[in-house]
Amino acid sequence: MEKYRLIREALIEKGILQRSELVEAECADLTDILRVHTARYVGGVLNGTLPPLEQRRIGFPWTPALVTRSLATVGGCLAATRAALEDGISGNLAGGTHHAMRDGGEGYCVFNDMAIVAAKLIAEGSIQRIAIVDLDVHQGNGTAEILSGFDSVKTLSMHGAKNFPFRKVASTVDVDLEDGTTDEQYLRILESILPNVLSPRPDLVIYQHGVDPLASDALGRLSLTFEGLAQRDRHVLATCKRMGIPVVLALGGGYAKPISDTIEAQCNTYRVAREIHPNV
Questions:
Q1: pLDDT tens profile 27-57
Q2: What is the CATH number of domain 2-276?
Q3: CA-based nearest residue to 272, from 213, 196, 211, 218
Q4: Residues 101, 141: contact at Cβ < 8 Å?
Q5: For range 119-139, the mean pLDDT
């Protein structure tokens, strides 16, 4: 959990973001959460009444603070999305909780912020097409499950074939990567599949930029370097800018040892975002 505070502090200390650019997230409206999650599950989270096995699958013990954090994570994603539609790019320094399914959470994911925001925007009619580009090393099973019936949302998950979750749920496009995949292999695959994901042109891309493909990540099993991850981010963000597609950043995973590697990799994503969007 400390990585969230450390990333925020590092972005300011390194001069990548100004403190004035950070806005505290408001808690999401329950109506939006109930659009994609069951009332049984949402009630269990809010009241702390989930069965012990379900709480263990999430990975966090229940506390009132967990409820607030989970609601604010979704609220942050929505606020960042609104800003991205105005400015071309924005980010949530949390979220990317892609393992949360309709009726349960797992893998440190309580509510699926990306699916909730996508469903809300489609329901409002303000956006016609959305692409979720999920480059976390773990497959986005919850996002795929929730959004499987949404023809207007494309989901890409590029992940470790032998990594968690061990029961995958089909995304629109899934790419299974072998253990030890290198920068060159990874980038070649990404460059070949991204055009399909962005065709027809979506009105918004939600980019889950987890940094757990990093070689030093304790849960990653891939072999990407800092430069490889930066090239990954540069390719996605530059492609979207060239096509005129707004992008909202969702933080995703990162479990490197030492933790400073995760902090540096996440800061690099925002460095690249500044490079691609110097006037935002």
A1: 999 999 999 999 999 999 999 999 999 999 9
A2: 3.40.800.20
A3: 211
A4: yes
A5: 96
The owner of tokens 């403190």 is 19
| Of residues 194, 192, 176, the one with CA closest to residue 184 | 192
Distance CA 267, CA 265 (A): 5
Residue 155 · residue 134 · CB < 8 Å: yes
pLDDT band of residue 1 (cuts 50, 70, 90) is confident
Domain residue extents for the chain: 2-276
70 within 8 A of 110, measured Cβ to Cβ? yes
User: DSSP secondary structure string, 163-229?
Assistant: SSPSS----SEEEEEPTT--HHHHHHHHHHHHHHHT-SPPSEEEEE---TTBTTBTTT---B-HHHH
- Of 240, 239, 212, 205, nearest to 228 by C-alpha is 212
As a whole number of angstroms, the distance between CA 75 and CA 78 comes to 5
pLDDT above 70 as % of the chain: 100
State yes or no: pLDDT of 244 exceeds 90: yes
